[in-house]
Amino acid sequence: IMMNSFCEKFKDRNVIDVIKQQYNRHPCTYADVLLKNGQLIPRETALTFKDDLCTQERIDYIIVLEKKHNINHYNNNLNRFNNGNGNIHNNVPIIGDSKIKEFFVDHPLISQLSDHYGVSLNLDLH
């Protein structure tokens, strides 16, 4: 629902969800779970709201807004912008790998540094 609302605001642009394209799905970034003895259990309980435990939500995004009239388009196979024939334009960023960052720690009170995961993107500007 959130992405639909976001896309509605940018009708004149191609809205590219880089994380979704990288993982070919909406990966969980909040209230994640572990499978233990055949049951789903919360991966983290100290920082996550009790009502949210095990909801496996996605709250972290990397969005690229591309002008629709631009001949460039995001090519997931190459993980970068190109002009349709594989040649990189000098006036657009080259998109590298995007990743989910989980921030796990070995501590008796907490298992991760944040209640949700972070996202990162390698971006090369030419």
Describe the structure.
By secondary structure, the chain is mostly beta strands. Helix content is 11%, strand content 31%. The protein contains two helices and eight strands. The protein has helices at residues 2-9, 18-23, and strands at residues 13-17, 33-36, 39-42, 63-67, 73-75, 80-82, 94-101, 118-124. The strands form four sheets. The chain has a two-stranded antiparallel sheet with strand order 1-4. Strand 5 (73-75) and strand 6 form a beta hairpin.
Radius of gyration: 18 Å
Order of H and E elements: HEHEEEEEEE
Instruction: Give the structural class.
Output: mainly beta
Choose one word for the global shape: elongated
Helix tally equals 2
- Mean pLDDT, rounded to whole units? 82
Question: What fraction of residues sit in β-strands?
Answer: 25-35%
Give the strand order of the largest sheet, numbering strands 1, 2, ... along the chain. 1-4
Number of strands: 8
Residues in helix, %: 10-25%
Largest sheet properties: 2 strands, antiparallel
- Rounded to the nearest angstrom, the distance between the terminal CA atoms is 34 Å
- Which residues form runs of ≥5 with pLDDT under 50? 76-83
Describe the secondary-structure layout.
Blueprint lengths: L1 H8 L3 E5 H6 L9 E4 L2 E4 L20 E5 L5 E3 L4 E3 L11 E8 L16 E7 L2
Antiparallel strand pairs: 1-4, 2-3, 5-6, 7-8
